[in-house]
Write a structure and sequence with these properties.
The complex is a heterotetramer of chains A (about 110), B (about 700), C (about 180) and D (about 525).
Chain A (H helix, E strand, L loop, with lengths): L7 H21 L3 H25 L1 H5 L4 H31 L13
Helix pairs in contact in A: 1-2, 2-4
Chain B lengths: L2 H23 L8 H25 L5 E10 L8 E9 H24 L12 H21 L3 H19 L6 H30 L13 H9 L6 E2 L2 E2 H16 L8 H4 L5 H10 L1 H11 L1 H7 L2 H20 L4 H21 L3 H28 L17 H15 L5 H20 L5 H25 L6 H6 L5 H12 L4 H4 L20 H6 L10 H34 L5 H6 L3 H8 L4 H43 L1 H21 L4 H7 L8 H18 L3
Antiparallel strand pairs in B: 1-2, 3-4
Chain C lengths: L2 H22 L3 H21 L3 H26 L15 H20 L14 H9 L3 H22 L3 H12 L1
Helix pairs in contact in C: 1-2, 2-3
The chains are: A mainly alpha (about 110), B mainly alpha (about 700), C mainly alpha (about 180), D mainly alpha (about 525).
Chain lengths: ~110, ~700, ~180, ~525
């Protein structure tokens, strides 16, 4: 084991912590945007794992293409779409209800 | 199928057709279709007369024509089971058919007047049509009962009559009392019917002495089995025929309103008066007696005749006592009916089935006359039924008075009238049985003779209070007028039929010896024809011997008690030589209390048995069902599930049902979803996520991490 | 310990701290700003891991795009002058229990697994190889995600668009 | 006429498909489509009466195909006389119920789709000859029922629907265990290979040769499985301790669903007993016969007593169903020709009269918006209806008297048959059951007296739940006529000429009886 920067477990643990905080945020936030931010954390944790494994794990590193980076790229694009749509919905709901408490959206009619 | 059988099949069919016509198009026909019912029953009457004449042509006690077919057959190769039904015409049913169709025709005719108001318009619109529909259905059922050659169709007709009785008693349906009375009548008779039905089940299914079940309800098969001694086995230590016979007798007790199920008949007077005449005096209540006449051999073999006699005697005496204190004209007649039915049942119990049947017929005719006369009085008095408000009516409604007087003479047992002949035969039989033969049963003749005296007394009380003396209600009195043609013709016909000569062929009932029979070739035709050679001798040879000896003393005694009754009644109510109040004061107060409360039967049945025992028990069951089984056991289990709901409940309800089934199957109804599963599925995104995470944890841990 | 290791450690600490603020800070605005730093930290990780192109994308799209959109959303949906950004989460218990459980499971998993690590990882710029891969092997997914992005953006525009008809109708109704 | 049973069973699926494409708001089209797709199975079933061979006890119109090869599950359908009678009943009532639900306003498309799905489940249960298929149909039926009660029901529909669901699920799960036990043991020593769900093959195995070990106890296999299956069917019948879902479901369900529930679904329990328990496990059936008879008598008397105390009209009718199903149990527990056929005929008859009664309760409810014989504040909720609506009253009378066994109407025939069959075997029990006749008359006529007779005091319940005196009661509408007339005519027809109907199931019923005797 040569140094922290080359220690895969470190990255994995940090991303696990991010993931867990993301879950906590998504589950406990009273604000829809808060939930959304939690989801962003979860996505970033996953993306980080991809890149770390690609660089440091033997079999993954042997692959000629940059798979980890491409998957992370896709995740970022997904996150961008999600952000656009989710925040549009949030604004729309707020316009109707003057609140973005997710429990207030339990009713499906406007 | 002989002519008579075809005719017999037609007889109940005509009124049945009339029923359907009346039900569906009755109110659209001219005159609300009363002529349909009347015409139908008249056709039946014609057919019945044809059979009646054919009976005279045969003039053979053993004359019988039967025809039957298999109604339904459930048999497989190994287990035979079929139900045969059919028609049986013999002397008894011919006479009965004639009587019922005649009475029914006259009562239909009477109803065309009675059920209209004084301007000749039908009362209460279409109800007039329904009235005739029910009458037709009733007549059809009664006639079906008479021609039945088996207990099964007899029972069916029996129940149908119960239905018609129910509908007709409750005919004035805006009255609570009428509704109560109809329910009471149906339920009380149904109690008896349960016994009858159980008896029928035993008769049909129990293995007889030869090890085979009878497997038939036909009278012929039953008689054959009785004669070959197949009923000589025991049920629970008792003679089989006795058990079955008594159970069947339960049916009679209910239908003919015998002690202790007599409570319904007086209340049944809530119905229109023609109904009281037809159903609750002339025909339906007599059907109970007809049943035990049919099943007489079974009762005889079982040796339960004495019990039957006691039930009849009790009913006769105690109903007569009740009749004395009544003031409602119809109630008096109702108790008198009870009492006379008691006579008939008593006569069957004494083995004098001919006398019983004869009394059935004569009673039907004169009681129909009495009821319709009372109906005419009520109609004339603008629906006033209390005899204390009447008086002096003989001048206003002379024809009605004459008819009612004749019928009263008949019921009181005055010679020359039909009641004398039939009642005399019963009393003679009672005398022979209770005094000469078995002196320990002295109660039966005692009750019989006492009742005869009381009958004369209360019937003449009715006559005196209604038709003689001063009018008590001048307003009604002035308005009273003789009823119309279609209402008094039936009275006249029935009054004419109350003459004894028609039944005995003799003006004096053979009192002066064989020579005075005026209808040649028909000497004492009734008893001759009804006597059934296959019925054995009631209470044995000695009894027959005694019967002969009893003839003269019995007749004299009955004449004496009747004249005492009439005289006494005249003194009290006619001439007013004796004060009725003082007479009443002679009796201790508990007697009055008992009579006023109808011997506490109604109190016991309704206040104790139903309200204190039965209804609380039923409520207990319902509460038990709701609180213990439903909420305790079932919801208790559900509460356990509730406790684990956060994990498992949500998982099943939200994820499985909601996600898979509903979204999968019923995607077309999102808002419906919301309302159904609101309690389970709250629409909270975070909760879904929580469940997903929880599931992930569970899965991971379960996989061994 | 080399410089890069210290750098990595610092980024790690920063990530954990800022993401914990995202999860727990009652003020949603602070959480959003903290999320910015988390995302910058993740970009730092990408740099450490030699994914230069990805780090750039992370900074441009996430920090430059998404975070700005989030902040806008917060500003527009909450009344800024009344400082109602407070977001006290009500139910921490179940989320924390489950999250801890998951973390524990993940940690056990990571610590127990024997990774076969590359002895000397080569950190070379990846932009070129990513570009080649996206136009050759991953061409179809790339097109697909592009289409997806387009649809998502158009959808977002439609959803967020104010309903003029409704407003017009309402005005008519109130004027009566 | 190939695959006629499949046509009868699955034809309504076409209706569901068609309904999905009906544009919103065209409710009448949805209703007429439903009428059409239920009429076709009815006509097919009636056509079958001419093709059916009445002298054969075995299965006819058999369809057989391998469905799931890996489990040896077959798509095996066929009818004998008994199931044919049930097919007739179910197709008839489904057809009539479309008219009974004519004034459904809410979610019309969803309602009728669910109803047609229910039809598929019911008919499938009566036609299936493969236990797995039977079970699948059994469960298919559960789902639409749950929604029909839960969405279109009354005030406490969710509670009723959940109760129904949990009860039935409880029964089904036990049944599933029994089903699997039979499946896995069917390969046992001198059994079949491979394991099968085919009822005909399962019935050939002598199940009493196996034993089960259950927590150290050694249980006879057939009796244990009998009890498991019994629980599944007992919930549906319902037999007394498992019956409390029924009043709830009935009271909360919309009219047509109550009609189907009473008319067909309850019969499926009895049908299940006869088809599965009696056929596969005859020795266990004989062993439990007395238990079954005792339960039947308890059902009769207890149901009647509970009905007596009910203050809700529909609950009263629901408990009367519990009571009437007792006659079926008593009749089939005795293994005599009359008893068994009486039980089967009683199923049909109760299907008619209960359907009619629930329809009539619905008719009153539509007009007065409540069902309380006695309201919560102790007043009569109805009273003297006969004066205002003689036609409704007349229809009630037919239903009531058919139900209480008045001769000339259908109920009497089957009850008399049951009693005639049961009396030689269980004398005391049958005599106690005869009390039921009395009690039935008592509660029904008492109800008639309070609701229809006496002075006119009928109340109307408004939206806010307050009662106030009702004015005129609207006359019967055409769709209600369509439901009532066929039922009334059939009641009368069976009461007078039962033999044609008896012929349908006579031979197959006697076959069941003779294997058990």
């Amino acid at each position: 084991m040569s140094g922290l920067a080359n220690n895969l477990s470190f990255y994995l643990v940090v991303s696990a912590i991010m993931f867990v905080f993301g879950i906590v945020a998504a589950l406990s936030r009273k604000n829809t945007i808060g939930i959304f931010m939690g989801v962003e954390l979860i996505l970033n944790a996953a993306a980080l794992n991809f890149v770390a494994v690609k660089l440091l794990q033997t079999k993954a590193a042997a692959s000629p293409t940059q798979d980890g980076a491409i998957f992370s790229l896709f995740i970022i694009v997904m996150a961008a779409i999600e952000a656009a749509v989710a925040l549009a919905i949030v604004l729309r709901v707020f316009g109707v209800k003057r609140s973005i408490d997710p429990d207030g959206m339990a009713r499906l009619r406007g | 199928m002989t002519t008579n059988i075809s005719l017999a099949l037609l007889i109940p069919l005509f009124p049945l057709l009339a029923y359907f016509v009346q039900v569906f198009v009755g109110k659209r026909l001219p005159r609300m279709g009363d002529w349909v019912s009347l015409g139908a029953i008249f056709l039946s009457f014609v057919a019945a007369s044809r059979i009646f004449l054919s009976m005279f042509n045969h003039f053979d006690p053993a004359w019988v024509e039967t025809w039957h077919f298999t109604w339904f057959d459930l048999a497989s190769l190994k287990t035979p089971f079929k139900l045969e039904i059919g028609v049986r015409i013999d002397n008894m049913s011919s006479i009965m058919l004639f009587m019922v169709t005649l009475c029914s025709t006259l009562i239909h005719l009477f109803s065309t007047g009675y059920m209209r108001n004084h301007h000749g318009e039908p009362e209460d619109g279409y109800r007039y049509a329904s009235f005739f529909a029910y009458l037709s259905l009733f007549t059809s059922a009664m006639l079906g009962l008479i021609i039945s050659d088996n207990l099964f169709t007899l029972f069916m007709s029996w129940e149908l009559m119960g239905l018609c009785s129910y509908l007709l008693i409750g005919f004035y349906r805006h009255k609570i009392s009428a509704a109560n009375a109809s329910l009471k009548a149906f339920m009380t008779t149904r109690v008896g019917d349960m016994g009858l039905f159980t008896g029928m089940l035993m008769l049909f299914t129990l293995p007889l002495a030869n090890g085979q079940a009878l497997g038939s309800f036909r009278f012929d098969d039953i008689y054959a089995a009785i004669q070959s001694g197949q009923f000589n086995f025991t049920i629970g230590g008792f003679h089989a025929a006795a058990v079955i016979g008594l159970l069947i007798f339960c049916g009679t007790v209910g239908k003919s309103a015998q002690f202790p199920l007599q409570v319904w008949l007086p209340d049944a007077m809530e119905g229109p008066t023609p109904v009281s005449a037809l159903i609750h005096a002339a025909t339906m209540v007599a059907a109970g007696v007809y049943l035990i006449l049919r099943m007489f051999p079974l009762l005889e073999v079982g040796g339960v005749l004495t019990i039957v006699a006691y039930v009849g005697a009790f009913t006769a005496l105690f109903a007569a006592i009740l009749a004395i204190k009544q003031n409602d004209i119809k109630k008096i007649l109702a108790y008198s009916t009870l009492s006379q039915l008691g006579y008939m049942v008593m006569a069957v119990g004494l083995g004098a089935y001919q006398a019983s049947f004869m009394h059935l017929i004569t009673h039907a005719l004169f009681k129909a006359c009495l009821f319709m006369s009372s109906g005419a009085v009520i109609y004339a008095m603008h629906h006033e039924q209390d005899i204390r408000h009447m008086g002096g009516l003989r001048k206003k409604i002379p024809i009605t008075f004459a008819c009612m007087f004749i019928a009263t003479l008949a019921i009181s047992g005055v010679p020359m009238f039909s009641g004398f002949v039939s009642k005399d035969k019963i009393l003679v039989a009672a005398y022979a049985f209770g005094i000469l033969d078995h002196s320990q049963h002295f109660f039966i003749p005692l009750a019989g003779f006492l009742t005869a005296g009381l009958t004369a007394f209360y019937m003449f009380r009715l006559i005196f209070k209604t038709f003689f003396g001063e009018p008590h209600d001048h307003h009604h009195y002035e308005e009273a007028h003789e009823v119309s043609f279609n209402m008094f013709v039936p009275l006249v016909v029935l009054a004419g039929l109350s003459l004894s000569v028609l039944f005995t062929g003799s003006l004096t009932g053979g009192l002066l010896g064989e020579g005075d029979f005026i209808l040649k070739g028909a000497n004492n035709w009734f008893e001759t024809l009804v006597t059934n050679a296959s019925f054995s001798a009631g209470h044995g040879e000695a009894w027959h011997e005694h019967l002969h000896h009893a003839h003269m003393p019995g007749m004299i005694l009955s004449l004496v008690v009747a004249s005492i009754g009439i005289t006494f009644s005249y003194l009290v109510f006619g001439a007013k030589k004796i004060s009725a109040d003082k007479l009443a004061a002679l009796w201790p107060s508990f007697v009055h209390k008992a009579i006023d409360n109808l011997y506490f039967f109604d109190w016991f049945y309704i206040k104790i048995l139903i309200q204190k025992v039965f209804m609380p028990f039923s409520s207990f069951c319902a509460i038990f069902d709701d609180k213990v089984i439903d909420q305790g056991a079932v919801d208790g289990v559900k509460n356990v599930t509730q406790a684990t709901k956060d994990v498992a409940g949500i998982l099943i309800d939200d994820v499985l049902i909601d996600g898979l089934l509903v979204d999968g199957v019923g995607g077309a109804m999102p808002s419906a979803l919301g309302s159904t599963l609101r309690t389970l599925q709250n629409g909270r995104v975070q909760r879904y996520l929580l469940v997903a995470v929880a599931a992930l944890v569970v899965v991971l841990i379960w996989r061994g991490f | 310990m080399k410089l890069i290791d210290i750098f990595t450690l610092l980024i790690g600490i920063s990530t954990v701290l800022t993401s914990s603020i995202v999860a727990f800070h009652p003020n949603i605005l602070y959480a959003a700003i903290s999320l910015t730093f988390t995302l910058i930290s993740v970009a730092g990780f990408y740099v450490v891991l030699g994914a230069d192109f990805l780090a750039a994308v992370q900074l441009i799209i996430y920090v430059g795009g998404i975070i700005v959109v989030i902040l806008f959303a917060i500003m527009m949906s909450e009344n800024i002058y009344r400082a109602r950004f407070l977001d006290q989460a009500r139910k921490y218990l179940a989320p924390i229990v489950f999250s801890t459980a998951i973390f524990w499971v993940l940690f056990k998993l990571i610590s127990k697994t024997q990774f076969s690590l590359v002895a000397d990882p080569v950190r070379v710029p990846i932009s070129e190889s990513v570009g080649v891969a996206l136009t050759t092997l991953y061409a179809l997914p790339f097109e697909y995600i592009a289409l997806f992005l387009l649809v998502g953006l158009v959808g977002a525009v439609i959803v967020a668009r104010p309903d003029y008809k409704e407003i017009h109708y309402k005005d008519e109704g109130s004027s009566k | 006429m190939n695959c006629v049973l499949s046509w009868i069973t699955f034809f309504p699926l076409l209706g569901i498909l068609a309904i999905l494409f009906v544009p919103k708001g065209k409710d009448d089209i949805v209703k007429w489509i439903s009428v059409g797709v239920t009429l076709v199975p009815l006509l097919l079933a009636i056509k079958l009466t001419t093709l059916f061979n009445y002298s054969v006890g075995g299965f006819q119109f058999v369809e057989k195909a391998l469905w799931i090869p890996s489990l040896n599950v077959e798509f095996h359908m066929g009818i004998d006389g008994m199931s044919f009678l049930m097919v007739l009943l179910a197709t008839l009532l489904s057809f009539l119920c479309i008219f009974a639900s004519w004034n459904i306003k809410k979610q019309v498309k969803g309602y009728f789709s669910m109803f047609l799905l229910l039809h598929v489940g019911m008919l499938g249960v009566f036609c299936a000859l493969d236990f797995f298929l039977f079970y699948v149909f059994w469960e298919v039926m559960l789902l639409p029922m749950y929604f029909l009660v839960g969405i279109w029901g009354g005030e406490r529909k969710e509670y009723a629907a959940i109760k129904f669901f949990l009860y039935t699920l409880f029964g089904s799960v036990l049944m599933l265990v029994g089903l699997l036990a039979l499946y896995f043991y069917s390969t046992g020593p001198n059994g079949l290979s491979p394991a099968t769900f085919d009822l005909a093959q399962l019935s050939k195995i002598n199940w009493s040769q196996y034993t089960l070990n259950f927590f150290g106890m050694t249980l006879p296999f057939d009796k244990a499985v009998w009890v498991l299956l019994f629980m599944g069917f007992a919930v549906k019948v319902p037999i007394v301790p498992f019956h409390t879902w029924l009043p709830w479901a009935h009271v909360q369900a919309p009219t047509a669903v109550s009609v189907i529930l009473a008319g067909v679904l309850l019969k499926m329990g009895i049908y299940g007993f006869l088809r599965i328990n009696y056929w596969l496990l005859p020795q266990a059936t004989q062993y439990f016969a007395t238990t079954l008879a005792v339960m039947g008598v308890i059902n009769i008397v207890y149901g009647a007593l509970c009905a007596m105390a009910q203050k809700d009209l529909k609950k009263l009718v629901a408990y009367s169903s519990v009571s009437h199903m007792g006659y079926c149990l008593l009749g089939m527990a005795v293994f005599t020709a009359a008893g068994m056929q009486g039980a089967i005929l009683q199923m049909f008859n109760h299907g008619l009269s209960a359907a009619m009664m629930f329809m009539l309760v619905g008719i009153l409810y539509d007009r007065l918006h409540h069902r309380a014989i006695v309201t919560t504040d102790g007043k009569l909720g109805f009273g003297g209806i006969a004066q205002k609506s003689p036609i409704i009253t007349a229809a009630w009378m037919v239903a009531v008297f058919s139900s209480l066994g008045l001769p000339g109407l259908n109920g009497f025939i089957s009850e008399a048959m049951v009693f005639l069959g049961a009396f030689p075997v269980y004398k005391t029990l049958t005599s106690v059951a005869a009390l039921g006749i009395l009690l039935t008359a008592a509660y029904l006529l008492w109800m008639v007296q309070r609701v229809f007779l006496g002075p006119y005091v009928a109340l109307h319940k408004d939206e806010s739940g307050h009662y106030h005196p009702a004015g005129e009661i609207p006359p019967i509408r055409w769709n209600e006529w369509v439901v009532l007339i066929p039922l009334a005519v059939l009641c009368l027809w069976i009461g007078l000429f039962p033999q044609p109907l008896i012929n349908i199931f006579k031979v197959s019923s006697n076959m069941i009886t003779e294997t058990l005797r």
